[in-house]
Amino acid sequence: MRKVLLSMLAAAFLLSLVGPALALPILPATDPPSWWDNPDRQRNDTVTVTNTGGTGQSEGTLTVFLDNLNDRTKYKEVYLVVEWDTIDDVNESIDVDKVVTISWPGGPSAPGIPMILNVDDLAGPPYHWEYMFEIDPQPESEIVFFSYSGIEVAEQLVIEYDLRTKCFEHENGTIPEPSGLALLALGVVGLARRKRS
Fold first, then answer.
1. Which one, out of 89, 100, 136, 195, has a CA that is 20 to 30 A from the CA of 40?
2. How far is it, in rounded angstroms, from Cα 166 to Cα 189?
3. Is the model's pTM score more than 0.90?
4. Is residue 8 part of a domain?
5. How many domains is the chain partitioned into structurally?
6. 59 in a domain, yes or no?
7. Angle at 115 between CA 103 and CA 173, to 5 degrees
């Protein structure tokens, strides 16, 4: 009996160590920044969107909020990994806008401005996209917006995301290049929306 109890306690201890890791989505970044494994803030989840309206169409926006300490002496790097797939999308009507936008207090209002598309894996489904952005000065929080459309009755859209941020000191009072403004200029290139043929 004692051996059984010891075995059960050992198993419970091991599950307590492994359990939190199993609860997080496994969403690898293929071209991550150097700080990816040591972020200041992180939020990840898997969201399933279903058409419950019964009208034959469904569209909307998924928002992800991430807070941070407000420190105007620093700047913030943001990196986002997104994978999405569909369930029972017989007509291939479901679409996620490749233009993922970001907004923050004191910056652009919702739905914000486009993040920079860094990785575009067209070998889906599932589709794998990665985005980056820099914000200067560091805001207290930011919100990321995903727009989707074309979910017909009985179809589902599954979006898995991993949003991470890291804050840095300025070098000699300036932000290292590429700056947020330079990234914004490059973001115009990423405004094309993925369409299925």
1. 100
2. 25
3. no
4. no
5. 1
6. yes
7. 75
